[in-house]
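Researcher: Next entry in the queue.
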Amino acid sequence: MSLTDLLVPTYTQMLNALSGWLDKASKQLPGDEVEALLSARLAPDMYPLSSQVCFSCLQAQEAWYRLRGESLPERLDELARSGQNAGEEPGSMSDARARIDRALSFLQGLAADELDACAHQPVSIELPNGMIFDMTGEQYVRDWALPQFYFHLNTAYAILRKRGIELGKADYVQHMFAYLRPGTVQTG
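Model: Structure for this entry, 188 residues:
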């Protein structure tokens, strides 16, 4: 499987799921509580829901630049800053949805083989504490890009569940219904 074939559907499916979770929250809570939900955290030392949305969207786009050895564009640097500052400025639910929509549009605009030549290219990740990780494109996708994306996505899901939003496994893997064998759903 190519990197493009792995990443584009994965990010697209799960960002659509995240959007659906926010829609459910908006339907289940009164308006003022929906906006306050963006400041909700799992623990005091963790980023709030608004940050988790920002970072999920960032991760879904960042891989393309890192795999091609390019610097992140200013719009992604701004998205990272928004996520880091969301504790003080969580924004609105419409802001969160717009971030998801922009990430999905970015993914839809990629060529079918956009990253296929990047599998063996070197990728370096430098953390703010000075640690540097060197790996190939495949290693980066497997060991960094996807785990980081899922960390923020799962944290968003957990925050919503902790706040009483009725979500279940079907909401998390809603893309699986495309594979459902006809006649296998029990009714009644």
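Model: The chain has one domain: 3-179.
Researcher: Noted, moving on.
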